[in-house]
Design goal:
Structural class: alpha+beta
Helix content: 25-40%
Shape: globular
Number of domains: 2
Strand content: 25-35%
Radius of gyration: 17 Å
Strand order of the largest sheet: 1-2-5-6-7-4-3
Number of strands: 7
Order of helices and strands: EEHEHEHHHEEE
Length: about 160
């Protein structure tokens, strides 16, 4: 289990509380899990929107979202997806706007790709101009799960 610590405005670092040398380990002893909510359930419920194809090396972004040719499961939060969906009087299309979000998020995550593939969670803050708005976003790469992009308050 990981606990987030906001060290700077650019990155969020994590402490692994399952490590034996971590003082917080005792805090989680004998804790009963009441319920869980999986990424798959969130996609089925519409809370997360699967953008893996748009972020893929073969059908989306050149080199894939992390630039290494691998396809990584990628989702956006519903709030972000709705915010970038153009209205009737807006210019641009959804795929183009999503590409901008995915591309900028990928660029922010790429310097930490080795950490991600080594099994560490990495979170970065990203600013993307979509239409006439500047969106401040968080991109989170979780090993074994994939990349989630959304507004900081969505996490």
């Amino acid at each position: 289990m990981l606990i987030g610590l906001d060290i700077s405005s650019e990155f969020v670092y994590y402490i692994d509380i399952n490590r034996k040398d971590t003082a917080m380990n005792d805090l989680w002893d004998n804790v009963e899990v009441i319920s869980t909510y999986s990424r798959e359930q969130a996609i089925e419920d519409g809370i997360l929107v699967d953008c893996t194809e748009w972020a893929s090396a073969s059908k989306g972004i050149l080199g894939g979202i992390l630039g290494n040719g691998h396809d990584v499961p990628t989702v956006m939060t519903r709030a972000l997806f709705d915010a970038i969906t153009p209205g009737k009087r807006s210019s641009g299309d959804l795929r183009g706007r999503a590409h901008d979000v995915l591309w900028m998020s990928g660029l922010a995550l790429r310097p930490q790709a080795r950490m991600i593939f080594a099994g560490e969670q990495v979170d970065v803050m990203v600013q993307v101009i979509v239409g006439n708005k500047t969106l401040r976003l968080r991109a989170s790469a979780v090993p074994g799960e994939g990349i989630t992009i959304g507004f900081p308050e969505d996490f």
